[in-house]
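B., you asked whether I could sanity-check this one before it goes into the benchmark set. Here's the sequence:
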Amino acid sequence: MRVKICGITRPEDARFAGNEGADAIGVVVCSPGSKREVSLDRAREIFRSVGPFVTTVAVTHTRSEEDLWEIFTIQPDAVQIFHPFKRTSLTEVRIIQAIGKGEPLPEDCDAIIIDESHGSGTAFDLAGAKNAVQHAKVPVILAGGLTPENVEAAIRQVRPYAVDVATGVEVSPGIKDPAKVRAFIAASRRA
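And here's what the prediction gave me:
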């Protein structure tokens, strides 16, 4: 099972997650109002702090193509978007399209993330997540309300390509708890 630790705001948390076996880290940019948003310069610093086998994901709620081009300049491996941009404008990196309950499955992306939580800890919709895994033409990532205590059961029920956590491994918004990160990754691997 692949694991993404999201909402990282500090290089030391990114390094720890990578050293513990996280496959990807997520950094929130161009998302005014997010408790975990960092500047593009800070995101670049965080991305550079991890090893070459950790996928870097810029997570954004922007609706601006200009912002997207700015995000591309920090050279993430993937960009996670919530707005349904046209694929022709997103040619620089892999695109992870976030969708919520009842939204159609997109096909013009590299992966889908089931995420109604947006870093709030709100639990995912089980039926919707299962449906997405069964019918999507691209890998499906599960997010929303996951914790070290419930991720193993969620994986067994949904069978996603990967899981994504932010709130469930924090001591405060953007600050990761090393023990929870370690436990989340271990529980994900057991599933």
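One thing to flag: Strands lie at 2-5, 24-28, 55-60, 78-81, 94-99, 111-114, 140-143, 162-165, 170-172, 175-176. Otherwise nothing jumped out at me.
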